[in-house]
Amino acid sequence: MTLKKILKLCLMISLLIFLSGCVSEKIATDKEHEETGTSESQTISKKHSDIIEHGYNLGDYHFYIMEFQKKNQTASTSLLQNFDTTIINNFNNYKDRISQNKKIEVLPFGIQYNLSEETVTINYFLINNFNKDIHSIHITGTPKFKTIENVLPLDIALSENELGLLPYKGIVAFPMNISAPIEYEPKLRDIKVADLSFDITDLEINGEKVDNNNEN
Most buried residue, 19, 44, 55, 144, by CB count within 10 Å? Predict the structure, then answer.
């Protein structure tokens, strides 16, 4: 069986997966909050509420919580309690890889291999550099690995009810969970974010098919 047939890709937009590497930090944070009392909890809750409602400035960009993420209270709360680690620090680390020549960027910023489940989870920023508000988006593209070839393309489809509104210079985040049988573990074990990319081959924005070359 070829690697192309074995590496079956599926999109799993789940912040529970997205936060799997931050569980221990979350537990420690929750314990600290309990010890510092109610006033700090209220302050944090207000901060989280503001991010959910208005997003968060990241330099020239603005991060948003997607509509379907807002509706999942457990997932959105977990994300926001680790916001500096999962979003701010990673954006600052990888923002120089953003290409202004592309309308849409699917930018990897984290990778984790799960040996027992034989999966790889890659975290991505979805970035709008197109001078237009995005209400829905459909992307066909292929995750690229430095050490692996012939990975199957996949579809990322977000309706208006799922995405909400993504303005120009807006960013959202999601993970992709990729099946990776144990025999490929040696090739995946030492892969770094710098070894990853995502090639968009077909793009549809707000129901209209467009190319990904940015003319603005």
Answer: 19
User: Tokens 């991505």 correspond to what residue?
Assistant: 124
Q: How far apart are CA 123 and CA 121, in angstroms?
A: 7
Q: Which amino acid type is present at position 87?
A: I
For the chain, 216 residues long, give each residue's pLDDT as a single digit of tens: 444 444 444 333 333 333 333 332 332 334 444 444 455 455 557 778 889 999 999 999 999 999 998 888 876 877 787 888 889 999 999 999 999 999 999 999 999 888 888 888 999 999 999 999 999 999 999 999 988 887 888 899 999 999 999 999 999 998 888 888 888 888 888 889 999 999 999 999 999 999 999 876
